Amino acid sequence: MSSDTSDVSHRSSRDLEAVSEALEVACAKHWPEGSNHKITGLAGTSTNGMSSETLLFDLTFDEPDGGRTTLNLVARVAPAKADVPVFPSYDMPAQFKTIETVGQLTDVPVPAALWCEPNPEVIGSPFFVMRKVEGEVPPDVMPYTFGENWLYDAPREQQSRLQESTVAAIAKLHSIPEPEARFAHLQQPESSGSTPLRRHVANRRAWYEFAAQACGPSDLVERGFVWLDDNWPAETETVFSWGDSRIGNVLYRDFEPVAVLDWEMAGVGPAELDLGWIVYCHRMFEDIAAQMGLPGMSHFMRADDVARSYERITGKTPRDLDWFITYSCLQLSIVFMRTSWRQVHFGDRPMPASVDEMIMNAPTLSEMIGK
What we know:
Layout: H1 16-27, E1 38-44, E2 53-62, E3 68-77, H2 92-105, E4 113-117, E5 127-131, H3 156-174, H4 179-182, H5 196-215, H6 219-230, E6 238-241, E7 250-253, E8 256-260, E9 267-270, H7 272-291, H8 303-314, H9 321-345, H10 362-369
Antiparallel strand pairs: 1-2, 2-3, 3-5, 4-5, 6-9, 7-8
């Protein structure tokens, strides 16, 4: 998940040299004895995302035939509590199982998941390891809507190809049969709501309360939850939901996905959860571009276009999409509460007079809920 267009300093306090040594020891459980495995080039990445940590490294080892092989790998690591994580908790085994399940049941491209280490004592946090996939990501910093990047500079037909192929990947995820059984490890307790959507919103409410414990309550977000209840949509078919369905979480090659990433928000619920999220995440970057006096990409990822593409692919008409776009805006407001508090915590910005001033997309949320 991305949440800021500013400098991403203070994301992690890990000692990468110590992590590299610990990872090398951990790899011994997954490679044959005597393979002489060696980790090199461990480095973090700050291009996209502000939640889980992503570490890149190379693993070189001896093959039985006497040759030596190098694998390019990625470790997805739960953030340390001291680094002010976005979410209250990070279930890395659940993320690992989700990637494995998606890879087994669909042809949606996901990285090859190699192993998961749930023990936080190994490198300081639970983590899992995947094969690295080469591709291009629409940048978050600075946002792709600002210009001077591969997506912005592409011809319109290529931008449309990327949009269509991404919606198609989402539709394939939604086609997984029996999602509540196959992704039981992602479901919220039934005590939190009578339907998957009710439980989803209850989970987000608990997430907001976690954020408010640190920086104080937001009057705007509180009113947003009231608006959701007052305008509750018709319940629709339950599908597997990617959760963080935005183009900044996809690796592309020739404007088509080669790896779908970031599964920490995955769950089950209406298809519109993913459709609203991909539309609003683009709108958020559009709003920032407009504030900077930049032309942006108003022709791209429009709600009506996304809905038409989804209907053409699946035969199912998205319903109440405006509600889900507003819900997406509210969720990102909670993200901003956490990332802004992180900046306050590390002395990168002063605490504002009002918590609502910490929320970058506050004007949009206020407009959407009409207050």
